[in-house]
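Hello again,

I reread your note about wanting to compare the complex against the isolated chains. To keep things tidy I'm splitting this into two emails, and this first one only covers the full assembly. Below are the input lines as submitted, including protein chains and any nucleic acid or small-molecule components. They are followed by the predicted structure of everything together. The single-chain runs will come separately.
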Amino acid sequence: MRWIIDFLNSSIGKKIIVSFTGIFLCSFLLVHLSGNFLLFRSDQGEAFEVYSKFMSTNGIIGFLEIGLALGFAIHIFNTLRLTLENKRARPVPYAVNKASENSSLTSRTMFYSGLLVLSFLIIHLKSYFWEHRIVGSDLTMYQSVVESFKDPVYGGFYVFAMVLLGLHLNHGFESAFQTLGLNHKKYTPIIKFLGLLFSIIVPAGFASMPIYFFIYQ
Amino acid sequence: MKLDSKIPDGHISEKWYKHRFQLKLVNPANKRKYSAIVVGTGLAGASAAASLAELGYNVSAFCYQDSARRAHSIAAQGGINAAKNYQNDGDSVYRLFYDTVKGGDYRAREANVHRLAEVSGNIIDQCVAQGVPFAREYSGYLDNRSFGGAQVSRTFYARGQTGQQLLLGAYSSLSKQIGLGNVKMFTRHEMVELVVINGRARGIIARDMVSGKIERYVADAVLLCTGGYGNVYYLSTNAKGSNATAIWRAYRKGAAFGNPCYVQIHPTCIPVSGDHQSKLTLMSESLRNDGKVWVPKRGDDTRNPSDIPEADRDYFLERKYPSFGNLVPRDVASRNSKQVCDEGKGVGGSKLAVYLDFRDAISRLGKPKIEERYGNLFQMYEQITAEDPYKTPMRIYPAVHYTMGGLWVDYNLMSTIPGLFVLGEANFSDHGANRLGASALMQGLADGYFVIPYTLGGYFAEGGLDKVTTEHEAFQAAENEAKGRLDRLLSINGTKSVDYYHKALGKIMWDNVGMSRNAKGLEEAIKKIKEIREEFWQNVRVLGANEEINQSLEKAGRVADYMELGELVAKDALQRNESCGGHFREEYQTEENEARRDDENFSYVAAWEYKGDDAEPVMHKEPLQFEYVKPSQRSYK
Amino acid sequence: MKLTLKVWRQKDAKSKGDFKTYELSDVSPDMSFLEMIDILNEKLIDSKEDPIAFDHDCREGICGSCGLYVNGRAHGLKRGITVCQLHMRSFNDGETVWIEPWRAKPFPVLKDLIVDRSPLDRIMQAGGFISARTGSAPDAHAVLIDHDTAELAMDAAACIGCGACVAACKNASAMLFVSAKVSQFALLPQGHPERESRVLAMVAQMDKEGFGSCTNTGACEAECPKSISITNIARLNREYLKAVIK
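Full-complex prediction:
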């Protein structure tokens, strides 16, 4: 069993775990997004309500939720650890450093874009998960969502967070494959293209909802 | 001093075979009781240290660089020769032997050269096994190319970085042994003195270049694998740190110095661009495979080279040497380039350059093929000169590159001090008066992988080694000597920097002891070197202290040795009243300006013995016998 | 050309360092960057000031000794070269040039611009080799290696161990260095018997030395004087994962 501990504590091992959890979280984003598209049905939220009921009461989903929470926790825990270690690896900074000449801004700011996405996540969980599942609310989930999207501050923050999520995904998606060693002269360009697509479409899909409700409701 | 070359009896092809049997062996269990110091971690040093450690000996290895991987073998570009005959073009051990003796202008020992040719194939096997990524054909077989001075394709290569790849192979084997604890590695350590006890080499004094500590190291044998002394000329293709201190200290302790005047001037280097020039960059000789050397027929032709039509170009190597053309040996190519420049036909701003043109090769083979063969060299050239060699011909000029001379060694690679072995470029042995391209790598690795593991064992097995420790008075004396020298350099506190004197010495050497020499110039050089040496010891300025990283002090110690070694080079050149290989005496040339050898009077190795600072060194002669390759006028026509 | 130089000066490993400013005129565009420092050093010696210490040796871009952070870039502003191959024609008259040593915890400064890169050697000692005892090798043609694989291995083997990848990486990671060696030996059949033990040992040593981890920014590849590709890092990750689960 020693080998598992060694692996989890090695620099590459930690990164591999970040990659696995990252890809897992990407799949969650897809599921979440496709569910949320029900908001656009012109049925006053009937279908969305059925969907959110199902998601919050089904036992299997509940089980998956634990997995999801763990995914987030491990992703965050390992990146925190890695970031601290990486900071320690260069105690004296350069007086002049032109990092922009050799790397992209998104790749260098993953920790910060991640941190902002996390802060969004906390607020997001507070508004929907906490209010509905823990405290209990008089409003339906649909009403609650539409209410908050009408608020320009909340909606604006939502859209801003999605932009950051896009930046995070922009580097994160292809980076995950690189870290897992999935690199190939034929397929890597495809992965990169899919990553770009993913990092635009998914956040744009989420962001379209507050924008839609802000404009049309 | 008695020079006993210990060349075994028998037919040339059986000498090494027999000798290996006759050498005594050290019992496997006893090997760990013997220790060896290896100074230098280039091809010879790294391969020797790794191989000896694999056998079970205790090895300590030293290098002045911050890592063993940085030794200057790394800069060798073109390739390594081996008599594999993979090309089915008529190569054989005997032909490689023959070519090397002939290429060396009949001034090398036949037996040594034959052994070199015999083990050449094993070297390739060994390197491939270590993961050296030699160039391959699409079939998966190893590729070969031809090289100057040979009419067969026997050169194995890894792009233009063959030296790097071979060194990294040896370095990786060395690294393994260091990791296992079989080799103790001392980086940033410079040998500053040899310790001789009861007539045997028993250790070294080294300076820790970070702390300045002067340290003592004891062993049963000392191996010097420290490369050549080309930096005597200040401008050379050697690394800035390459130096002759180890071999010079050994010379002063009684090791004979063989043929110091044999210095190779490489024909294809990037020309000097100004006074600030700190070193010269070689463009691999392999470029001559596809590049054509020419100058304009008229000296005053200032047209752009690509505008000069065929009729106005003088492809002087092809014209004078139709059978070898651009692939004549280095000494011949260098001398001819100098000659056309002396005639006023040189090109470029300084007029001290000739063109090396790839136009025809690019149109014949296509740019991608040329790029695959020489891509990194072309890039290197463009970096330095800001000219694109794919479009405009390279400008090249000869530069000091390799020293065939070095410490005299016998067939076992042992110097005249028992227990002091000398490997690679640091010894004088295999190349005679001129080294063929792609043979330096071969010799370094042959010595380290396949010669010293046998001969060192033979030396140990003969016995007679007393038990000594670093407490011995000889260590104290050597340490005092080293410290005294360093203190003296630091206390002069004069007005001129070390580089100033190094440049001054270099200029004397290049002008008077360079590509062509004459008695008057050599006598003048000897006089001038003495003067400048005296001035150096009166007026050099070395700042700082010993107990720190002090690069001026490191340089000062090396330059002090060059000041003495340069004089010996000139003396040796003066006594050798003939022209041979890299040694060209203007007084001794044929009517066609080719070198005129004098086999009757000069078919010997000149081995110089140090007799003290105030006495003249004494020259001993080791006669050379040629039983197999009959000396003839070298002809590449 | 006239230049203002801001150079990191530090007496030894224990002392605190600082930038010192030097004015240098008569800089020729044909000089290499290191020759420019040579000239400055000659001036310093003239005025009895300690010359600037910096590592350098071959001065033709292959030994890997030199390594300076020039104006915020490892080996200076041009790609694919070492700082000894950088020429002054790449600078403008009157420019201010910042010269710093490599910065990384595993590479402590020894003096001025000289750092200790021995961790890279120790990583090699841990597993950066193919165990081929001298004399034990079969004929060189015993194993065929296709041209493209040999070329890929050579691409990786071109690493000169200068440490620019570590210096340029925001995490001071040595992944490119390690991956180049692991890749070379993973690609070649000769390297296969020790494939797993090699990658595990080298990565363990790399971590022990205190290098950061790889976040795939690609800075190392961009600043590598031999332009070694980060596809090698992917191969290292793959090799590592395979070795762990095997």
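For quick reference: Strands of chain C lie at 3-9, 18-24, 69-70, 73-74, 96-100, 109-111, 114-115.

B.
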